[in-house]
Amino acid sequence: MTAAVPAHTARRAFDKKALVPWLFLAPGLLLALVFKFWPMAKGIWLSFFHVRPFLGNEWTGLDNYTRVLTDHRFQEAIGHTLILGIGQAVGAILLGFALALLLEGQARSLKFLRTAVFLPAVTATAVVGELWRLMYYPTSDGLINSGLHFFGLGTVQFLDNPNIALYSTMAMGIWIWAPYNMVIFLAGLAGVDRSLYEAAAMDGVSLWQRLRYVTLPAIRSALMIVLTLATIRGLRVFTEVYVLTGGGPAGSTDVWMTRAYTLGFTRNDIGGASAASVVLLCVTLLLTVTVNHFRKRGEAR
Amino acid sequence: MSAPVIDPVRPAAPDTPAGRSPQARRTTPARFDTALGWNDRPGLAWGLRILLCGVALAIFAAPFLTIFSGAFTTHPSGSSLSFLPHDTTLSNFEVAGAQGMWDYLGNSLVIAGGGLLLQLVVCTLAAYALARHRFRGQALIMLLFMMTLMLPEEVIAIPLSLVLGDVPVVHVDLKGTVWGVILPLGAWGFSVMMLTEFMRDIPTEIEEAARLDGVGELRMLWQIILPLCKPALGVAGVLGFIMIWDQYLLPLIAAKDPTDYTVTVALATLRTDPVVGSGVVLAGAVIALIPSLIVYLLLQRSLVTGIAAGATKG
Questions:
Q1: Among A residues 60-89, those touching chain B with beta carbons less than 8 Å apart
Q2: Of A11, A35, B252, B277, which has the most beta carbons under 10 Å away?
Q3: B47 or A54, which is more confident?
């Protein structure tokens, strides 16, 4: 009889205790559900419909997908996305690593330099876009063109020439992300055991061999993370292209997301734009899972 | 790990693979301090390093000087874009103000302030539950928050704009209100994960002692856990602010008409206005740049350590 009372309170306490974490999680889960997962589900759902406001949606099956994937402007956009994504990722990684090697150290002046060099990464992309539009000004008055002029080179139509507009965009992307990667690499470099450098010096290896066999293996995990982040970022690139070129000239810088945006918001083809987004989402998820798989395997080894 | 704050240049001792002691570090010759073996003695390498640092500074930092000098110059165009202003004037800011840039800045500040506050509260609550409680489905919830990172605004933009126009169940139209931008920023997987990692490292003894004193859950979080989390909250705050300030697509799709734009979105519309010159655009860029610049320069240590911590944690 007396035992029943503590059992009862214990159970009530247990129930209350089990509820507590969910109360704390509720706001976050609710917001994620309404503004992330519900739109995602809705996007997947709408991608199977011919969306007509006021007239009701019409089920069209995979029609939107075949339409998007066979559309030549989307096909071109895939190519641009890949070139931009890979070029930007590789460029920003190489430059970021070079910056990290250059600015590694503890001197106060180096800290100041790192702070200054990191500025592009904290500046809003829209502001960076405006800055680069002015630097790319297509006459000999432009900042970069006047520099080229100084070296006796002709003016370049950075953003107006369909053949180089994509590479001009890529240069801006590298400029934004190299300092970001630099910070990650600096963190990796800081973890390198200094006595290894010392030992390498005693063995009389060259600077290149030291970088190749001591530094690179030590920062491999940092490199993998930077590569993953950069690739996913490259796939869903939007703002950089949208503010710098808007996809032009003549669609030469159109990437997957700017194309989907135009389709959805300018041409009101919600179904097609949703299908395009779902394709991108699938590729992103696939890539993330693959990279994580290889990373886990790499760590296990 | 004693604290998740990692100096990217000199990590906390447990993070170094070999765990060298400070003494060992001090006796190590300076030329093994960096991967390239830089040293301070004047010489060819020293000169080369200074030269390369100059180049890096010119490429990454100098363009910002052109923004400022152009914004204060009467008619900056092309060749007159330089690193120092000439014909100094404030007229660009007057024109930019007449174009509504100060109102857009106001929108931005409300969204950044409100969004950051909501984000910190929501993510702290979630992190507290994930770090200090054990419950069924914990791994799944963690996965859900990680997935919010994989669902960036770009990918769900089109359906999100429909959802903002008619929120499910409650059927409210958030378009044209600041809530349309603030609420979707609330649950940010990065902050949840980082704060969870940090809170896990707080010793349970502290918590148990407080529980014996009859401290409830909310007071536990507010008076015991949060004060210990200040460094992590700083990192989450700075990174969150930079992330929110950088938002472009979300304010664009959440706006009902151009007066709802944030300063970064308005910058692009300012440029397409044929009447305003590049000086005014640069003045607008300065207006959009200043708040993030202030936050960065004041708190750059937490920002940099946050990126480094996020990266090394994966």
A1: none
A2: A35
A3: B47
DSSP 8-state symbol, B123: H
**Which residue from B81, B61, B57, B60 is spatially nearest to B71, judged by alpha carbons?**
B81
The one-letter amino acid code at A48 reads: F
Q: What distance, in Å, lies between the first and last C-alpha atoms of chain B?
A: 15
pLDDT tens digits, B37-70: 787 777 888 889 999 999 999 899 988 888 888 8
Best interface-test mutation with B: which of A14, A15, A23, A36 has the largest number of B CBs within 10 A? A36
In our burial notation (b when 16+ CB lie closer than 10 A, e otherwise), range A71-96 reads eeebeebeebbebbbebbbebbbebb
Collect all residues of chain A within an 8 Å Cβ-Cβ radius of residue B154: 236, 238, 257
CB contacts of A108 in chain B (<8 Å) are: none
Burial A19-39 (b: 16+ CB within 10 A, else e): ebbeebbebbbebbebbbbbb
**How far is Cα A27 from Cα A33, in angstroms, rounded to an integer?**
10
Q: Is B138 helix (H, G, I), strand (E, B) or coil?
A: helix
CB contact under 8 A, A186 and B34: no
Cα-based distances in Å from A206 to A190, A200, A209, A254, B295: 21, 9, 5, 45, 43
Rg (CA), chain B: 24
Q: Has the ipTM of the complex gone over 0.95?
A: no
CB contact under 8 A, A183 and B29: no
Q: Is the pTM of this model over 0.95?
A: no
Using a CB-CB cut-off of 8 Å, the residues of chain A touching B253 are 265
Question: Within a 13 Å sphere around the CA of B188, how many CA atoms are in the beta-carbon half?
Answer: 23
